[in-house]
Task: structure prediction
Amino acid sequence: MLSSSSSDLLFLALAARLGHSDSSSSSSDDDESGSRNESTDSSSGDGDSSVSIGSVENDDEDEYEQVFIESMQNVKDNEDVRDLCAEGSYGYIQNMTNEDWEQLGRDISNHDHLGSLSITRHALEDENMSFLFRGLTKSNTIKYVTLYENDFGAEGVLAMVPFLQNVDYLEELNLNDNTITSEGFNSVFRALHGSAINYLRCSGCGIDSIKIDNDYIPRNLRILGLCHNSINADGCRELAKLLQRSLLSLELSKNSIDDEGVEILANSLCNSSLLQIDLTQNQISVEGLKLLLKVVNDISSIEATLRSNHTLNLINVVANDDAGGGGDKESEEVQQQINDTVMINRRNRNYPEAAGKEKVIHSQLNSIKRRNLAALLGVDGEVLYSEINCLHLPEVLSIIGETHGQGEIYVALRSSIAALFSTVDRKQCLQQQRAYHRAKLEAIEAEIAAIEGAQENAEVSRGVCNLASGHYTSFPTNELTSSRAVFVQPLGACCYRNK
Ligand SMILES: *[C@@H]1O[C@H](CO)[C@@H](O)[C@H](O)[C@H]1NC(C)=O
Ligand SMILES: *[C@@H]1O[C@H](CO)[C@@H](O)[C@H](O)[C@H]1NC(C)=O
Ligand SMILES: *[C@@H]1O[C@H](CO)[C@@H](O)[C@H](O)[C@H]1NC(C)=O
Ligand SMILES: *[C@@H]1O[C@H](CO)[C@@H](O)[C@H](O)[C@H]1NC(C)=O
Ligand SMILES: *[C@@H]1O[C@H](CO)[C@@H](O)[C@H](O)[C@H]1NC(C)=O
Ligand SMILES: *[C@@H]1O[C@H](CO)[C@@H](O)[C@H](O)[C@H]1NC(C)=O
Result:
């Protein structure tokens, strides 16, 4: 239940994200797109807010700068503007004084519509940040704040803290490529705990030591981007605290994570909310990779396979590209196995039981595949037919035939399963024999009794019964033979014929 809605959210978030970053000034869908039509949709993109300027199709920077200046004026006048986007290359930005930054901050604080604030690419240093956020201390509407590739550090980002504590609707914060360092990250993270943040990006921020306080974890955080920092095993230990929460995607490419770090993450992954983890370009050996494969398919037993995690749908460690992400042959093989397995999770999104079953069929019931996997993971390579309930064998065999073909069915039959079948048959056969002999025995006993009855009749009629007790009563001959059962017992109790 939870994982289905959260994965939907992730896809929504990713979709929103794509839509959002595609053009630097989109998002005014609410205004006009309702009256528009599919055919014109593709060409819109950045046309909406610059309608007044005309239908010019060139992405001249001056034009964007004009849009920014107009939007800024609208913010000041509390007109309906959803987006405010600026870059460091704008002359207007370069001319801004500290007072201008503070005023802009105040105007945004007092504005009732702005949904997205984006000031990027060398527009902001520590000092400008301080002034901007001296004015900008709250917002009841902002959902997206994008400040990537500026030149501020911990001091600049610390200036944001009051703002971050006062933005109830903030969903995304992008601080990529500012050297905010561990100090800045830890403070921002803490400040966000009461917010609605679900997407936090701090890649390339010079972070090497993370501190996460369990009581200050943003409860809606879905995606955390921390690529290109210096996070090591200690950082993984802290990040593991997030995996038991709401996190869906953790981006840790290009850090200093080794096998110890992977082990920490893998142990928490088994029981996490995570769907995607990117660990490319770290210091992870094939042994670390195996730990991750085990998370999604522990082939040590069928039971373990069924208990593996069936929700992770992306685990990247060895990248195929030439950017240094490639590994040795064995690592690539394990990554390939991981890819195949998470593909099963993907195919069975929201149906973990179906994923588990598919994994058993593809990895446990295919002797070749299982032998390969077993060799990789260092477990016993024999197919585990003995774990299968005999009652399910016909179904299992038919599945093997359908998915792996006659060859595998033959292997299955010839190897362990044949032995198992003969055991089953032997038991059934003995049971049948027992039932047969029981019936036979009853018939024999009945016949003996009948013969004895007849003899007794004869003896009774002849009057030669040895009366050891006084219970004997005499019956007429035909009555006795017709009710043999009644007769046999009193006869046994009272008559001894030891001759
Ligand atoms: C799109 O426009 C055409 C013609 O202008 C119209 O017939 C059609 O109903 C419109 N579709 C939608 C979804 O508005
Ligand atoms: C920036 O300031 C300079 C000097 O005051 C001025 O010439 C220039 O027009 C200004 N640029 C913008 C975009 O305001
Ligand atoms: C930001 O502040 C620095 C001083 O720390 C100043 O040199 C720079 O021009 C300011 N940048 C902008 C875009 O205002
Ligand atoms: C799994 O997570 C729950 C809380 O989300 C926790 O109570 C439980 O101990 C965890 N189990 C393992 C095996 O880590
Ligand atoms: C796998 O992860 C999901 C969340 O994505 C979690 O609910 C589930 O308990 C995990 N499965 C196992 C077997 O740990
Ligand atoms: C595994 O999948 C990822 C994408 O999901 C891809 O980039 C990578 O090249 C694949 N690796 C192998 C070994 O197939």
